[in-house]
């Protein structure tokens, strides 16, 4: 395959084995959400919540890995989630689903960019605009213009930096402070963190797993990796990626306990960045900054690449045939426009903490059963199936005034599931009646 071929941009030059497949998935899923949500989860739900957050990502990737083999068997000639939707849905349903994916995609990139703005604002004494210009330019050249091959070239470096930080920095502090003083300090100032019989934490764990699986099952970048990882290695690759990912939030939680033991705190979101004030080693400060930069830039680059591919291949390419040169031209145009829009939005909005973990959680939960129906079904599906996710999302948001946030996510999941189940029963009965007649 020539480097000038647009297929090279979509999938890279070769199929991935287990090792590089795991690296590629970790590079995608260790994100700003992971960095910023881990402190929030630990503080709100204690150690049980921290462990639950780790289970969320691990189980989500493992469960999707089980589906991945089925996806490759049934849709072996496809390259993106959009290709599969085009094959399984009617035209109205296809365009409706593509619209949903675009909204979710932009939200995902926006959350990552906002996380980058928060990180840059807290770490460097620079205006948000200046830092974001360099940051988004880097993401543009890697994910937007560089394509899958460029992403793969940096994935290994990103993962090495991430694991170096989450292993070396906690070991450094625990050697300095000792494990027992940290435990005693947490027990004295924040005993709720050690309380393991928290019923709210149990609800949080199951809800987080639901959201995590919904997020992975519609993630454009993860679907692309399904088609570029060797088919016989898919399940083990996703399983290993999930198990390894689970260690990241646990390591970040241990860092939070190091920071807050023996004292109180002002802001949940700024806790990780108070770490810089405690690090005496310049090398470890640089390592921590590189860890934050690598995690968020790799996630944005992967998402940017996936969205641009979706737009060119499954939207513009459906409206009219495109030459190879036109596809490359649209690649620069769309990725550049998205980076510019993100720069404007993040610069205008103050870099204040935002709710990252359950923002759009209702939508992710309501997408699970429709996507399972699309993957596992055998017939062309009507627009009702993707519409079920919108009805479920709306129902969940409508219940917010009378229910807590976690329960409304289950409302969204249940409504969407009931609609899909109703259509399945109706279709089954209609088929039986037709056979009898």
TrEMBL record:
Predominant cellular place of this UniProt entry's protein: membrane
TM segment ranges: 7-30, 50-68, 94-113, 119-142, 154-175, 201-218, 238-262, 282-308, 329-350, 356-376, 383-403, 409-429
InterPro entries, alphabetized: Na/Glc_symporter_sf, Na/solute_symporter, Sodium:Solute_Symporter
Keyword set, alphabetical order: Cell membrane, Ion transport, Membrane, Sodium, Sodium transport, Symport, Transmembrane, Transmembrane helix, Transport
Gene3D superfamilies: Sodium/glucose cotransporter
Reaction catalysed by this enzyme: L-proline(in) + Na(+)(in) = L-proline(out) + Na(+)(out)
This protein's record includes keyword Iron-sulfur: no
Subcellular location: Cell membrane
Membrane topology type: Multi-pass membrane protein
Transport as UniProt keyword: yes
Similarity comment text for this entry: Belongs to the sodium:solute symporter (SSF) (TC 2.A.21) family.
Protein name per Swiss-Prot or TrEMBL: Na+/proline symporter
């Amino acid at each position: 395959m020539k480097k000038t071929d647009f297929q090279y941009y979509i999938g890279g030059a070769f199929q991935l084995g287990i090792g590089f497949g795991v690296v590629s998935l970790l590079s995608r899923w260790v994100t700003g959400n992971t960095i910023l949500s881990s402190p929030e989860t630990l503080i709100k739900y204690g150690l049980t919540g921290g462990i639950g957050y780790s289970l969320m990502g691990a189980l989500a990737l493992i469960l999707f890995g089980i589906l991945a083999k089925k996806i490759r068997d049934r849709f072996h000639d496809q390259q993106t989630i959009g290709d599969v939707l085009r094959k399984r849905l009617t035209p109205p349903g296809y365009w409706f689903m593509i619209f949903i994916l675009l909204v979710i995609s932009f939200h995902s990139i926006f959350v990552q960019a906002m996380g980058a703005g928060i990180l840059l604002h807290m770490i460097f004494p620079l205006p948000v605009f200046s830092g974001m210009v360099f940051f988004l330019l880097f993401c543009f050249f890697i994910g937007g213009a560089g394509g899958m091959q460029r992403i793969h070239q940096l994935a290994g470096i990103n993962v090495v930096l991430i694991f170096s930080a989450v292993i070396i920095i906690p070991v450094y502090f625990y050697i300095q402070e000792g494990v027992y003083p940290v435990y005693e300090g947490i027990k004295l100032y924040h005993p709720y963190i050690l309380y393991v019989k928290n019923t709210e934490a149990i609800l949080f764990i199951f809800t987080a797993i639901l959201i995590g699986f919904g997020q992975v099952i519609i993630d454009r970048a993860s679907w692309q990796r399904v088609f570029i990882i060797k088919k016989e290695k898919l399940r083990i690759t996703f399983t290993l990626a999930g198990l390894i990912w689970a260690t990241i939030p646990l390591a970040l939680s241990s860092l939070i306990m190091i920071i807050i033991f023996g004292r109180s705190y002002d802001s949940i979101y700024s806790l990780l960045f108070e770490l810089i004030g405690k690090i005496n080693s310049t090398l470890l400060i640089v390592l921590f900054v590189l860890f934050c930069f690598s995690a968020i830039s790799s996630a944005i680059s992967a998402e940017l690449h996936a969205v641009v591919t979706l737009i060119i291949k499954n939207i513009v390419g459906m409206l009219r045939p495109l030459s190879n040169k036109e596809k490359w031209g649209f690649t620069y145009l769309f990725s550049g426009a998205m980076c510019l829009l993100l720069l404007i939005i993040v610069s205008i909005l103050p870099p204040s903490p935002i709710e990252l973990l359950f923002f759009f959680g209702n939508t992710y939960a309501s997408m699970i059963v429709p996507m399972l129906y699309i993957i596992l079904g055998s017939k062309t599906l009507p627009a009702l199936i993707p519409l079920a996710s919108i009805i479920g999302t709306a129902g969940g948001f409508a219940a917010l005034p009378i229910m807590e946030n976690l329960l409304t996510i289950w409302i969204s999941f249940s409504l969407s599931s009931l609609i899909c189940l109703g259509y399945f029963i109706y279709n089954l009965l209609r088929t039986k009646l037709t056979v009898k007649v």
